[in-house]
## 1
Amino acid sequence: METLLLSLLASLLLLPAASGHFEVHSPSKELVAEVGSNVLLPCTLTPVLPEAELEVRWFHNLFTNIVFLLKDGIEDRQHQSPAYRGRAFMKERPTSGNLSLNLHNVQLSDAGIYNCFVENTTTKDYEEDSMELNVVGSGSPPLIAVALQDSAVVVSCSSDGWFPKPTIFWKKENGDLDPTDIETNTDMGELIRVKSRILLNGSSEGQVYCGLRHPVTGKETGLYVKVSDAIFPRTSPWAILFWLLLMVTIAVSAVMAWLLYSKQKRSEMRLKEKDVHIEQLKWEVEWRKVSTKKESIFFDPLTAYAGLIVSPDRRHISTSKTVQNVPQNIERFDTEPCVLGQTSFQHGTRYWETEIHEKTGKFWSLGVAVETVRRTGGQRECPENGIWAIRGTVDGYYALSSPPEPIIVRSRTPRPQIPGLLNDQGTHEPERIKRVGTLLDYENGRISFYDVDTFEPLYTFQAQFPHPVIPFYYIGPGISFLSVERESMDFR
């Protein structure tokens, strides 16, 4: 009897712990995506577990290089790597069992190993699977150029936008041709430009073909060219005279064409400058109308995240290097660096302005939120969560709709002091937005944002407000906001 009990006890100890067991699986171990495209990184969870028990972590190469992080059903952007902010989104909720990740605007630096890591925070069990993402550049169709060199003709072929380096080759009707040289270099985005040349001594080669083949996708692009007998130099003085006359004619035609083109471009530029000036005047008229309703907004310190500092006059807010010891209350944001205004609105038309000081950072949001907006845990800023806002990042500006929409800042020309045409500002990098005006039309469900320095309208949301709304701010590291007082309004 004692032996039977010991055997039964041993069998029970060896039984697998079925509770909490799950599997994470990626059906694709190797993916290929083009630069600038969107790619889906597949991952599934079986069986489906409650969101509150899960931590879902997507990371790139290193566990700490977080692409996307979901804890207890809440997206955590505080620990997300800056390179993936605004580019990485889960396709569905974990309750569906689909943990696939959408990665937008793929870059060369995105290449590498991606891990789908899932931990059951209750049982401390975890599983993961990985896949490799290869990023390629498909390249542009080749450009062909023909030039004379002594008694021969040089045909060059070039193409850019490749990664990795393509194979470039030449063919003729009866075989391959050997290039005289092959040049490669990279552009600002680390994409490869390749150029090759061949030397033709006579038109007997017939048609020649320049082709490029991608080493990963196998995609091939190419172009045929035929060099006429008339192009090859001859020792006949009549041929020399013909070519001289042809070159003079081409040169004169090119000069005439250039003069006509330059004149046309100058006319187009003047018309464009007038159109831009008229558009700016329209922006200014609209801005002056809404700015007559300007009022002061004060930050509510009772709602401010503990890592934010609100000035005594409640008009200035900035980030702190340490988390402050502040009284806890249900109104305060506990994980996100956010703050609300002191006054909520449920009727009428309101307008206020906010100065943005980007000291060492370029990540912030501002807009309006419903008065009942969630204050605990991380959340995605979007109309579905009761937040209508725009965001500034190092890459540009976005309206936080679903999905986010890029905001094209069409002009950063300062306000004209003397009426007239705008001057050409060159091709320098545009200045950052320094002051944003917010217009709230509650009854008509409209929230509009303006660049106060140029009068330019940035973006407009249309919504139906279920509750009173209140000014909303997200202050990233190295950012400070100043609420512009009503008395400081000017009409320059």
## 2
Amino acid sequence: MFVLVRDNNVDQALRVLKKKMQREGIFRELKARRAYEKPSEKRAREMGEAIRRARKLQRKQAQREGLLPGPKPRPRTTEKRPAGPAS
């Protein structure tokens, strides 16, 4: 994994790197490896994650079918972003 540093903007490159690492699940993996997790705790955690995924899937399906209202639209900001280099 690599990130390009444009115009010596290391702060932006660091933000991009952190976002990529977050998407890949590296931070979650590091946290999990910090301490030993008992097999029973691991099963309980994985079961909870599976239940959350299933509920999310059901909620999205119900929204698509019109049984539940969709997500609230994000408020639009009127601030102008500073002009930067074209990506």
## 3
Amino acid sequence: MLLDKVEEHASFGGTQAVYRHSSRAVGAPMKFSVYLPPQAATKKVPALFYLAGLTCTEETFPIKAGAQRYAAEHGIALISPDTSPRDTGIPWENNSWEFGTGAGFYVDATVAPWNKHFQMYSYVKDELRELALEHFPIDGSRLGIFGHSMGGHGALVLAIRNPDIYKSVSAFAPIAAPMHCDWGLGAFAGYLGDDHNEWKRYDASELMRTTSTRFREGILIDQGLADKFLTESQLNPELFEAACAKVGQPLTLRRHEGYDHGYFFIASFMADHIAHHARVLNA
């Protein structure tokens, strides 16, 4: 598969770049960012996939999160896709910041017209991973995944459903139980229709209640207590916490006074998340 390099910058001894390609999964052009640490110049390195939240692009994470410093220290590549297909021709794709453009929710849509292009689950799990392994010095047996808000939801779902692919997982303020919040109800109804069994396949709390998967090194979640979306019951970390407790999945859910939902919060705890993954991927 061909890649078009959009830009590249030196960063902490490695390189931060953005690529464009024609995606078979979504049937439209897609962009993603890649940080390669200095260690990648001489050997294959593990990689972390980061899934961003509502309204974000492939550039949000590398610009705002401050992750490259820690990725360079631990010798881990960072890969972050855009949050949805764009300019697909769907007449109302730009009508809402909570649905459509910038809001793919990391599901494979089954309802027309979204099902033609909004296949973000398959894009991340299959196509993006294949591109990373084909074009960059990445060890495919050492992959982890993390994300924020909508992307935290996506990271948890992808990890729980694919423990053979993702060896480590963490999240910042994830939409932890989308079947129990307005964001999730709107997205699932729009993308997946009325089949609630299909909805359960993309709800991390529902998946965890019935899974036999165990991430032995644990799952790390950070949540700010000044997060307005927490108080509006969009995130519901306590439901995921209860599901983990039910099945014995180790979980570290840290609640932080004074922190909100944005990237100042994420950057404050990025070092801990990279270290969490490094303990698994560099073991």
## 4
Amino acid sequence: MRLKNQVVIITGASRGLGQAMALLFGKEGAHIIAASRTSSEIEHTAEQIRDHGGSALAIPTDITDLAQVSDLFRRVEEDYGKIDILINNAGIGLFGSVEELTPEALDQMLAVNVKGTVYCCQAAFKRMKEARSGHIINILSTASKVGRANESGYTASKWAQAGFTESLKAEAKPFGIRVTSFCPGGMNTPFWQTPENQAHQQQAEQFMNPQAIAELLLHIATFPAAINIDDIVVKRM
């Protein structure tokens, strides 16, 4: 088992890529902490891991709430005594023209994609710094590399998330903490199955399989501690 006894926190673990990672990493021996706002869905993810002989804990968490994030990491520390890997996977995208971008939509994307990532990284960094080891993987997007029409708010949030991650890399390196920017293109996940994103649903059927992306992330997470995958972009053919 490639992740035996590794403690792995995955946000947005209730569905899509987050769930695929949780199930796969659990099979590789990791203790999975599945975090998401939807308690029933992350408990289902955790149950699937335990049904296959793995170790998993579901902790309902709204990552935009600093108090809930603090409680998440406190509970993990109390139960496991360490954090080996944090994967910031939770994210939201609301699309439309610049003129249609509402303050509410912008606030929501900045809160989840930026503040949520910052809060989780702060909590993990504090503990990994003391241990002088650990790996933080921030799931960004190809939108953190290039702007597209009808994605202005989402792109702004992802560029901010990417900028934060670059600074985190510089601060983390002296303490032996690895930080990876992982930038996938579109995946066929429930991310698109919202009323706001109906225009993308048919196109999503042609997007990448989240299971294949989870396999790649597992490979990255199991590299030797002396090697860091700094930045990776994954696109469909």
